[in-house]
Each structure stands twice: as C-alpha cells, then as structure tokens.
Amino acid sequence: MAGSVQLLCLATNSGVPLYCRSKGESRQLPFSVIGSLNGVHMFGSNQDVLLTSTCTDNTRVCWRVFRDSITLIVMSSEEDASDLYLSRLLDNVFGAMVLVIGLDNLVNLKNVERLKRELRACYKLIDSLLTASDWIGDLTLCVDCVVSPDAAILQEALEVFVAAAQSNFGCLMVMGKVVVATEKWWRLDAQEVVLLTWLVGSLAPNSSRDYPIYLPQGSPTVPHRLLTFQLVPGVDVCLLCGPTPSLQQVQTELVERFWSPVLEPLKTCLNLHQVTFPICIPLHHSIIGLLLINREQNKNLFTLQPHGVESSQQPGTVLSPERRRSVLRQFYTLAVSAYFPAEASEDKPAVLHEEFHTGFTHSPTECYVAAADHKSYGIQTRQHQLLLTFTPETPTFSLRNIATKTLNLLTKEVPF
Q: What are the backbone dihedrals phi and psi of residue 27, each rounded to the nearest 5 degrees, phi first?
C-alpha cells in the first residue's frame, strides 16, 4: 500500500519553518503539529538527550540537526521506510541544500525570508529524493551506473572533450545514470557524485545548462559551474569548471566536434538505462530484481528488468515494478544494517533498534529472505555486494547457487 512522506525544514534557533515538502496523499501539517515535533526534539536536547527517531503503528519519524543551524524532520508511512533510509534521506536533503545555495547561507541565518526564497531552487532536487525512481543511490550512497558495450569508445571521447574544455571533471549520463566519467570525477566525495547525478536527472530536459553549484564536502562555500549538454534526448555530458570556458564556446566549438563521431554508441546507451548492463549476459530466469554494488568505487548497478523491458513480465512473476523496488530496498536495508554491519558502520545514521549480529562468532557474508510473494538473497565480498530478488517459485535451496554464479558472471563479464 502506498504511503506518504512529509519533510520539514526549520531554523534551529528560532523554530521558524523554512519549507515543507511532501510525497503521496498527505495534507499540509498545521503549525501546531510542526511546533510540537520540533519542541519535543528541543526538549530532549535541553535534557542532554539526543532524539533521533521514533515510530507509531504506521509512521516513522526522524530528526537531524545540521551545523546547529538547520533542523530537518521527516515522517514516513511507507512500507519500506527505515531508520537507515530516513537518516540517509536527511543527509542527502541537507547535502542538496548545500549543493544548490552553499553552506554560508545555511549557517549564517541573517534573513529568514530571503533564505526561504533561495531554498525554492532546491525543491526539484529534494522532491526527486522523496520520489521512488529507477535510481537507488539515495539509499546505497553509491552512484547509479550503466555499463555500455562501447564504454572504451565513450571514455576516450569524454577524456578529449573534457581536456579541450580545460577541465578535469566530466561525466556522461543516460537518464540520470553514469555511463563513463573522468578519474577526477570519481575522486569527488561519493555523496557529491550522487547528488550531481540526481540534480541533472531532476531538471527539465534542456539542450544546455550553466548551473552554479557548491560541492558539499570539497567546496561548500565557493561555487563552481556545472555545464550540461544534451547529446541525444536522455543522454547528457556534464562538466565541472571555473569561470572559463563559456557555455556558448563549449557548445559551438566542442560538443559537435567530439560527440558526433560517436552518435551510434550514444543511442545504444538509451536502450540500456533500465537494464543497466548488456542484455546478452545470461542471467537466471527466476531473477526479477538485481543490485550490484562496487564497494571500493562507490558505484552500483540497479535494475528491476534484468532480462530486458520486453521480458520483464515473465510467467510466474507476480510483483509489480513498484513492489520489486520496495522489496529490493527493504532487503538492502536489512542486509547492511543487520548482517553486513561493516558497511553500515561507515555511516553516521541513528543507532538501530536491534543488533542481530551481536553474539555471532563470524561476520556474515550471505543472507536470504523467503516471503510469500518473493525470495531474496544477498552476498558480500571484499569488493562487491550482490542482492537479488527472485520469483516465489524459485526453490530456496537453489538461491545460493544462483546468486554465486550470478556474481561470478557479472564480475567476469561486466567491467564493474
């Protein structure tokens, strides 16, 4: 059943609401409720108690204060909402605010009304973080990617294009997912790369853009320019640069020169954005959802149609795409918070209610779930995490064998 999400942003010192964004069928919260939610958190702080989350029968609430200046509160009645997800959502929302308007404007609150107006520029990005999509980087904190069979050709075209534009930071995206990027783009903080891809994916299609942005970790107070150029509908090339070159100069002198020779490989990418890897890779027919994470490079492949768009409605498949997405997100949350704790310990989020690994004589590297309408299996290695969703008819005893073969196949056939 679809739920709703309410996100509140307040000035920490005064408690003045700065904005409220929502998803689903939810009514505007009255000021008295907003004040109560903020008041209970402030009361706890005054008693040296840190209130991070709570839940009722159908709603989960999380609080976070950033830089002693901005308070974010999120309430979710969605089935797959968890403390891990909501905590990362609040981190991403504050990162989005820094990305668009800079840290100084958020820390030095001199004019609340002016800040409210400036924050409107963040709404599209924040709304995209609240909305279910073909991306999962908001939860994994890894960049959603697409593996193209023409990756080497596109990488070479990108490198020479970025160098000609006097930059070191560039990437090629298809429908908000990264196909190839320069080495220095990958060296940016993982959250910065995730937010940059979500920003481009959240904006209305345009032939070109010159967008001022701040890097939440690398440059939160000094702006850079994000230049984007639509090569074919759905495929954009992005640059991070300083005052030069101009948008017009890059568009007229460089875009056609470097990208017209690779027009066909660019069009091929469009056919892959939902599958995320070449469909010639023979996956087991019972797999209906896949998430492969490269833990060292903070990249992931995420698909709800692992056999291609035409084959997504297989015999025996009872889960809708929305249900598959929810199942895979729930399984990822369970795996990293309960069974693969090393990944979760790198994060700052709220303390989980239960520590299932307490008392284990080893660190689990595999886990599974068998439910009425699906089955799931997860494997963690030193470099990768693979989480799969299966049809409910798949024999439980075969899950490990299929998952192991799938991981070996993908890491061998896909340069990821």
A: -90, 160
At 121, list the tokens: 């520029």
Say how far apart CA 238 and CA 225 lie, in whole Å.
10
Instruction: Give CA–CA dist 329/322, Å, rounded.
Output: 11
Q: Which of 219, 222, 225 lies closest to 246 in space, CA to CA?
A: 225
Of 146, 148, 156, 165, nearest to 255 (Cα)?
165
Report which secondary-structure segment, H or E, holds 147: none
* CA gap 312, 284 in Å, rounded: 13
Look up the pTM and report it. Answer: 0.90
Q: Residues 53-57: what's their mean pLDDT?
A: 88
> For the residues of 339-406, what is the DSSP string, one character each?
I-HHHHHTS--PPPS--TTTT-SS---EEEEE-SS-EEEEEE-SSEEEEEEE-TTS-GGGHHHHHHHH
Question: Residue 56 is encoded by which pair of tokens?
Answer: 């009722």
pLDDT per residue over 355-413, tens digit each?
A: 554 555 677 899 999 999 999 999 999 999 999 999 999 999 999 999 999 999 998 88
Q: Strand, helix or coil at 72?
A: strand
> Burial level of 302, CB count in 10 A (0-12/13-18/19+)?
buried
Q: State whether residue 349 is helix, strand or coil.
A: coil
CA distances from 366 to 233, 336, 339, 362, 386 (A): 40, 11, 8, 12, 10
Which tokens in the block code for residue 10? Answer: 């307040």
- Is beta strand 384-390 parallel, antiparallel or unpaired with respect to 375-380? antiparallel
Judge contact between 170 and 188, C-beta under 8 A. no
Residue 312 is given by DSSP the state S
